[in-house]
């Protein structure tokens, strides 16, 4: 896909922003280490649901993002991160973009673990986080025209909708596929919920505090109803 701003101008893509550059460099460095260690990193840093749920390898929910299954897998993901992550980082600012990237990536991994908690095959790649970034791009720039396969002009909102439907149907029809469709869909779902404020740390804390307040009020009301009039002392 390539951006097509409209009119007679054509741009192959945006200028890479700071966080996007560092994320790309980290992914490339991790890929080189994968090659040098002949895949020995995968059981430790890839996302293995069985190890997360049984051995508490919780760091895998973050580290799996930086590993990739091959050169083409890496190139496609880094291209998507550059194309859609740079405009979003420029729009949001670096701190919010980094937080969003990791929340969608970790959330996508967590959803994969919840769906198949006993799976022993590793899931790797930044696709979940990048699908979350793509969703944000489609929401922020819905009418931006993208060149699908560098040929077909399609509005961003339709690209996002199409990828979401494809990931959902693929997850249903081929749960054992090596392509982590659950992670792709999870990145979009978590991204949507986060942008709506439903899964942000602040929102979750506020919901917990409201729940605690309701419990305390209910306990007080039950206690108050149980007291008899003669329980009160008169001075």
Distinctive features:
235 residues; mainly alpha; Rhomboid-like fold; 3-stranded antiparallel sheet; 5% strand; disordered N terminus
Describe the structure.
With 235 residues, this protein is mainly alpha-helical. The chain has a single domain (2-200), classed as Rhomboid-like fold (Up-down Bundle). 64% of the residues lie in helices and 5% in strands. The protein contains 10 helices and 3 strands. The chain has helices at residues 18-36, 42-45, 49-54, 60-63, 71-92, 94-115, 127-140, 156-173, 181-195, 201-226, and strands at residues 2-4, 145-148, 152-155. The chain has a 3-stranded antiparallel sheet with strand order 1-2-3. Helix 5 crosses helix 6 and helix 5 runs parallel beside helix 7 (127-140). The longest helix has 26 residues, at 201-226. The protein is globular and about 65 Å long. The termini are far apart. Residues 1-10 have low confidence and may be disordered.
């Amino acid at each position: 896909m390539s951006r097509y701003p409209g009119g007679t101008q054509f741009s192959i893509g945006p200028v890479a922003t700071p966080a996007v550059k560092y994320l790309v460099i980290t992914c490339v460095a991790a890929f080189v280490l994968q090659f040098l260690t002949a895949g020995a990193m995968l059981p430790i840093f890839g996302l293995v649901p069985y190890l997360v749920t049984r051995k508490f390898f919780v760091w895998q929910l973050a580290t799996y993002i930086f590993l990739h299954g091959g050169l083409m897998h890496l190139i496609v993901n880094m291209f998507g991160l550059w194309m859609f992550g740079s405009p979003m980082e420029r729009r949001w600012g670096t701190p919010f973009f980094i937080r969003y990237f990791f929340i969608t990536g970790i959330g996508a991994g967590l959803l994969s673990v919840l769906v198949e908690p006993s799976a022993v095959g590793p899931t790797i790649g930044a696709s979940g986080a990048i699908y979350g970034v793509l969703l944000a791009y489609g929401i922020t720039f819905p009418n931006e025209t993208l060149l699908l396969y560098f040929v077909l002009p399609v509005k961003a909102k339709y690209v996002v909708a199409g990828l979401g439907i494809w990931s959902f149907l693929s997850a249903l029809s081929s749960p054992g596929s090596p392509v982590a469709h659950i992670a792709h869909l999870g990145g979009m779902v978590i991204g949507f919920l986060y942008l709506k404020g439903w899964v942000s740390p602040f929102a979750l804390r506020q919901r917990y505090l409201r729940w605690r307040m309701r419990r305390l009020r209910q306990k007080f009301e039950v206690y108050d109803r149980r007291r008899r009039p003669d329980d009160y002392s008169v001075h």
